[in-house]
Amino acid sequence: MSSIDIQNLNFNYQPNSTTLSDVNVQFEIGQFSLLVGPSGSGKSTLLKILTGLLPEFGGEIVNGVFSIPNQLKVGLVFQNPNHQFTLDTPRHELEFVLENLRIDPKLMPAKINAALAFCEIESLIDRQLNTLSGGEKQKVALAIVIAMNRDIILLDEPFASIDPQSRAELIAKLVTLRDQQQKTIIIADHDLLGYKQVVDHVYTIHNQTIQTLSREDGLQLLTDFEKQVPAITSTLPIANLEVAFNFDELQIQIQQHALLSQSSLQIPSGKVTLITGENGIGKSTLFLSMAKLMKFSGEIQMNQTNIQKIKAKKYAREVALIFQDSENQFLTVTMREEIELSKQHRKSDYFNDAMITSCLTQLNLNELLDQVVYTLSEGQKKKLQILLMIIVEPEVLLLDEPLKGLDIDSIHQIVTILNAYRAEHQQTIVMISHQFSGLNQFVDYHLNFANQKLTYVETVS
């Protein structure tokens, strides 16, 4: 069986700063391969090398070679789908891609419809991309690569913002591409659920190099991960709890499309509340409304005060929204500059310089202080983003997909830092997440968002 063959590969982004070292690995053609490793270990870098994006647009292959057999064509689904888009709607994106491939215009509509149907997003064809949820954008990015009909499909954290049911369905469809069209599938992922029954090979990347696991060791790795993700247990809020937010006849819509119609709801103070729901249901839009960044009708109260009556500057100091896309949070150039900016807004000496250094060490960011934030891996960006916002000690944290791009150890470190702070300070956390890894014993309450309503449930698995 032929394979993508990588021999003695060494890659640097900067001189004397090795990202990949002495990589020797083969990815078999027509197989489903899974690449796992810590945030910032080089998974995205390897995929970009295989597509030719690197070193074309950065870095240097110091030595070594790689070969792709039979001139097979490669397509990549980026970890951040925003980096993949050029135009305004899925239709225009797909037309643009197919035009660049010199596809006969008469054949384009059928190819576009088939790609959208594959990802079950036909209804999104003319939606503005900047109005889509993170999960919907990831599905559009996948549809683009499907339309390109590449022989080798590389996917970089493709399901990080996708709800569990859609994730399972898309994995099954990728298996179909392997089995029925002999496509080669290579996925880099931190969330290892759902792969045990479908992958052919598992590779680990650590200390700048890659190891091919035996069949038995690969299955054991996936089994061990499943054991680390027990069901999250949550209770229903009891009466007379202190309330952080109260919704009264809250109506939220976007482009004339109703998302939420909530007659009343209370979110407890000083607790962690998880919000789940299908992609595009309106979760991120709800957070924008709670942060006073989007219009709504009805009333949202914080600590019994209508948030519309709270001055914007004061409210921004008390309620911090951590965006789903980390880059939207950054204001300067380097990690050091971002941290210095957050330090200017500290409310107490809890996050003193020693504590910040300790947190950076826990998160494996301490040696990256002078790196440009936009050159960090997506997982490193996410860890930095969360740290920057908790340094300013807001009363309320709104976390939109905070686990995206994070390995399980990084999730545990983030939860540890948050819990240590909350042990000494009253802080309310409301979080949106499709991933539950590492959240057991962290979440107090669970809200399910469906049919334009938020409803408390007792458990989520």
UniProtKB/TrEMBL annotation:
Record bears the keyword Cell membrane: yes
Entry keyword set: ATP-binding, Cell membrane, Membrane, Nucleotide-binding, Translocase, Transport
Topology with respect to the bilayer: Peripheral membrane protein
A cellular-component GO term for this protein: ATP-binding cassette (ABC) transporter complex
Keyword Protease: no
GO molecular function: ATP binding; ATP hydrolysis activity; ATPase-coupled transmembrane transporter activity
PROSITE patterns: ABC_TRANSPORTER_1 (PS00211), ABC_TRANSPORTER_2 (PS50893)
Subcellular location: Cell membrane
Entry-linked InterPro entries: AAA+_ATPase (IPR003593), ABC_transporter-like_ATP-bd (IPR003439), ABC_transporter-like_CS (IPR017871), ABC_transpr_CbiO/EcfA_su (IPR015856), ECF_ABC_transporter_ATP-bd (IPR050095), P-loop_NTPase (IPR027417)
UniProt xrefs under CDD domains: ABC_cobalt_CbiO_domain1
SUPFAM superfamilies: P-loop containing nucleoside triphosphate hydrolases
Domain ABC transporter: 4-232, 245-460
Family of this protein: Belongs to the ABC transporter superfamily.
Listed PANTHER family: ENERGY-COUPLING FACTOR TRANSPORTER ATP-BINDING PROTEIN ECFA2, HEAVY METAL TRANSPORTER
Protein name from the UniProt record: ABC transporter ATP-binding protein
